[in-house]
Amino acid sequence: MEPVNGAVASARDEVGDRRESADRDAPGREAGEVARSTFLNRADRANLLRYMAMMRSAEERAITLYRQGKIPGSFYDGAGQEAISVGSSYALGPRDRMCILHRDLGAHFVRGVTPDRYLANYMGRAGGVTGGRDGNLHFGDRELGCVGMVSMLPDMAPVATGMALSFKLRGEPRVAMTYFGDGSTANGQWHEALNFAGVHLLPVVFVLENNGFAYSTPNELEFAVDPVERAATYGFPGELIDGNDVEAVFEASRIAAARAREGGGPTLIECRTMRMHGHGAHDDMRYVPPEMFEEWSARDPIDRYGERLVAEHGFSADEVERIRAEVKAYVDECAQTALASPMPDPATATDGVFADDLTPLGDGKAPWSYWAERPDVERSAA
Amino acid sequence: MSAATEVTYLEAISDGLRQEMRRDPSVLCIGEDIGAFGGAFKVTDGFIEEFGAGRVMDAPLAENAIIGAAVGAAAEGLRPVCEMQFADFISCGFDQLVNVAAKMHYRQGLAVPMVVRLPSGGGFSGGPFHSQNPEAWFLQSPGLKVVAPATAADAKGLLTAAIRDPNPVCYLEHKGLYRYVKGEVPAGEHEVALGEARLAREGGELSVITYGSGVHLALEAAADLDEDIEVLDLRSLCPLDTEAILASARKTGKVLVAHEATQSCGVGAEVAALVAAEAFEDLDGPVRRLTAPDVPIPFSPPLEQAVLPQLDDMKEACRELLAY
Ligand SMILES: Cc1ncc(C[n+]2csc(CCOP(=O)(O)OP(=O)(O)O)c2C)c(N)n1
Ligand SMILES: [Mg+2]
């Protein structure tokens, strides 16, 4: 049962100077080469495509709503980065826990949030995940085992570390996963979290989405040494992978989660990708060289995976098209549901500052066939 | 409840913490040097031997990691009690406290039951970074409860309640009271509800509304002056016992709010505004404040004494209001 692990190159194999780390390709493979997981069946592969397409469609739908003035405030998306949140969250079990960030809508969908609740949240509606308490991707469905992000980056890294601490103290084979961007690795809390997790070998998977920019600031102005190389200094492995290859992300996450579950401690997975839209809808990205877009458009994670399903996994082109079209129609339906959701009642604005009772986290959806085929795996809290 | 015994404020804190750790296996401590060393002030002395390193965790020097990890652990059903080595260092974990912990329930209905223990207060040449009373920082952060016990019994009772509460609670333990204050403390489980002030001394002419170290100054001043002074110990700053404050203000008609923390936008300002708004008709004089001025707490003893309210300052402020 040894996994095919061609996609996962050890960070420490990549000894290079600074200029090399600015090279946007993950090392160790020829261009166009892809990872294949032996842990995925046909239904899983259709799911990976479906969730990535759902993220793309939902965010495109949201942009339209934003342009129509139906979304107050600002707008952020993760266009081009869909493989990361989908591939990583897909490897988790129901009792694992997540702190999902602003480029990671796909992970919310994998855990079980439906697009109407996402769209309603953006529009500040009562039917949004936070019921209008917070906007955009600043949410986490408690009942699906998620703790919602705050603006301050990367504040969820210490929080995920704390969840992992509780798993370790209770001797539970569970994993916490969180994300952060390349820019966030410059903040002190990044160090605090990774150091703490390393000291106690906590079962946490840190997924770094290196999309080349922190708002307008390129990698070279955020760090002198690629963050994936820093993992070793915290005492755990760092893996550098192609973040636009959903199976590579899945494999690296699956292996990291399995190691964490077995007491092997944290992993830092750096996913190389590219933010294909501005930091927010207001950002025209004039600071990005046009060639960079062309290059990364050709590596679109969804198109690329569709082609692979046809070329290597016995899907017909029609089938791939159908999946994408079905998802789009579903998202359209969800948009109607979201638009029908009322605005929150202003009289409730001061409610809920304090808790009266404990409100435990629930379990998330775990669509990976591994979990469905293993009824022996404990699914809900004892 | 078992018989009361006389212990110090410090022992009462340890006692309350130990009691809750024995009672509830989900309670754990995280902080710097709290394990084998027993904490900078020895509150957790002997804890690691009884509860093990998993529940008495020596944390790296990283306050945001301590508070942030506590939030995660609380979300997962544990009840972490964080120790800041000194209250002042909460500034380094402030972001996790006010942005992550405080807003969690409002934003997503997720309770984070956790306590942050904050050894606070000056009077021993700790200087600008080891003497602060940072309670007003927390009061500007909706979602945090804030308590500041003055007596040994309340030190234990409020800590117990803070640990059992489903919210993040900032527990200010005044370092000057650790060994100075002794009192009877119920030996068994002892809980003091958050949000209830305590009438420390009954009187009819003047209300001194205070908390923490201010309670002891006020009681001493009242005894020395031998006047009909009431002393209300707030104990809990959020939730604030507005009823007790207003009842005392209405009864005496004169209010002095006293605290060791600096003045502007502090608890004194809040209490004064409350009394002015709700008990105006019952007042026989201006609401006054006795606080530290708005300066960092200086190191050198004469400077520090000039800044922190002293017994004579308290007596003077009482005399002036009584004569008004
Ligand atoms: C502590 C902090 N400072 C500033 C910001 C404002 N800000 C929001 S996103 C962002 C860039 C983040 O870049 P990166 O971590 O690479 O994530 P990306 O958005 O590229 O996924 C900045 C500066 C913030 N959210 N948090
Ligand atoms: Mg980035």
Structure, described:
The complex is a heterodimer of chains A (382) and B (324). With 382 residues, chain A is of the alpha/beta class. Chain A is built from 13 helices and 8 strands. Chain A has a single domain (34-342), classed as Rossmann fold (3-Layer(aba) Sandwich). In chain A, the strands form 2 sheets. Chain A has a 6-stranded mixed β-sheet, sandwiched between helices. Chain A has a two-stranded antiparallel ribbon with strand order 5-6. In chain A, helix 2 packs parallel to helix 5 (115-122), helix 2 (42-67) packs antiparallel against helix 11 and helix 6 runs parallel beside helix 7. Chain A starts with 8 loop residues before the first strand and ends in a 10-residue tail after the last helix. Mean pLDDT of chain A is 90; it is low at 1-22. Chain B has 324 residues and is an alpha/beta fold. Chain B folds into 2 domains: 4-186, 3-Layer(aba) Sandwich (Rossmann fold), CATH 3.40.50.970; 198-322, Rossmann fold (3-Layer(aba) Sandwich). In chain B, 38% of the residues lie in helices and 22% in strands. In chain B, strand 4 (79-83), helix 4 (94-108) and strand 5 form a beta-alpha-beta unit. In chain B, helix 3 (63-75) runs parallel beside helix 4 (94-108). The longest helix of chain B has 15 residues, at 9-23. In chain B, 58% of the residues are buried. Classes of the chains: A alpha/beta (382), B alpha/beta (324). Chain A binds chain B through residues 97, 129-130, 133-134, 138-142, 147-148, 150-152, 155-167, 169, 176, 188-189, 191-193, 195-196, 199, 352-361, and chain B through 28, 54-55, 59-60, 62, 64-65, 67-78, 80, 95-96, 99-100, 103-113, 142-143, 145, 166-167. Bound molecules: thiamine diphosphate and magnesium ion.
